[in-house]
Amino acid sequence: MLYNVFFGILLTCSFLCLYRVGRGPTAPDRTVAIDILGIVVVGFCAVLSLMTGKDFYMNVAIAWALLSFIGTLALAKHLAGRGFDE
After folding, report:
1. Are residues 36 and 14 in contact, defined by beta-carbon separation less than 8 angstroms?
2. Please, how many CA atoms are within 13 Å of residue 29, restricted to the half-sphere of its CB?
């Protein structure tokens, strides 16, 4: 039952992040919402890993977190108007 509460909280957070991505007033707001959505996906993977007892979900969570971080950095550099090689 506790896992269902966690899933409900994470689902609510994901809908709020998707709302901010769609209605964000500025591009940095949308970027932060996308980054938080990546963190919520990592949370989903962590709860699934605890629920099932399989460590495969934690591997997916680590890979997702790394890709989300790199994507956020690339988007921030793009929004700042700088090149990726700087």
Report:
1. no
2. 11
Is residue 24 assigned to a domain?
yes
pLDDT tens digits, one per residue of 19-60:
999 998 988 888 889 999 999 999 999 999 999 999 999 999
* Phi, psi of 41, deg, nearest 5: -65, -40
76 and 67 in contact (C-beta within 8 Å)? Answer: no
Please count the structural domains in the chain.
1
Q: Which residue has the tokens 């699934």?
A: 48
Q: pTM for this structure?
A: 0.83
In a domain, 85, yes or no: no
Q: What is the dihedral of CA 21, 23, 24, 26, to 10 degrees?
A: 120
Domain that includes residue 6, residue range: 2-80
Is residue 86 included in any domain, yes or no? Answer: no
